[in-house]
Design goal:
single chain, 156 residues, alpha/beta, Glutaredoxin, 5 helices, 38% helix
């Protein structure tokens, strides 16, 4: 049992050490195309609580998370809250179909190189889904936050 805990601790610390973005870091400044082929600058969204959600159309846990995120966003979008989905899909048609099927109304961006995508490397994304919560000043306050953590940040 102790060996299992040791191995899991080592794996966790290794993956945490590989993360590129850390609590307290600023919202990265880069541009990606959205599902309407418009370029969006991520840093331009400062001023709101922002949840950056990495996902892909082929990722079953991501699609399940979308079913919770879509109504959550609709309930809180008028409270200076924004979700930005960043897809690591390599097939834009499948990505756009998933957006429509999951009725995702919040901003959807794509960085179509999978886990080698620059956005994934900047954030240190190693698994999907992965989410990053930024406060209104653009500082990272939580990685893979719970719904309660998001709500607490929105209400600040």
């Amino acid at each position: 049992m102790k060996k299992i805990i040791l191995v899991l601790s080592l794996i966790f610390s290794f993956s945490a050490a590989n993360a590129q973005i850390h609590i307290g870091d600023s919202l990265p400044d880069f541009e990606l195309k959205n599902n309407k082929d418009v370029t969006v600058n991520l840093a331009s969204l400062k001023g709101k609580t922002i949840l950056v959600d990495f996902w892909a159309s082929w990722c079953a846990p991501c699609r399940m998370a979308n079913k919770k995120l879509a109504p959550f966003y609709n309930q809180h979008k008028n409270e200076k809250f924004e979700i930005v989905g960043i897809s690591l899909d390599t097939d834009q048609a499948k990505w756009k179909n998933a957006i429509q099927k999951d009725t995702l109304e919040y901003e959807q961006l794509i960085d179509p190189k999978g886990f080698d995508a620059p956005a994934a490397l900047i954030f240190g994304v190693e698994q999907l889904p992965s989410a990053y919560l930024f406060d209104a000043s653009g500082k990272l306050v939580a990685i893979n936050p719970s719904e309660e953590q998001i709500l607490m940040q929105i209400k600040k």
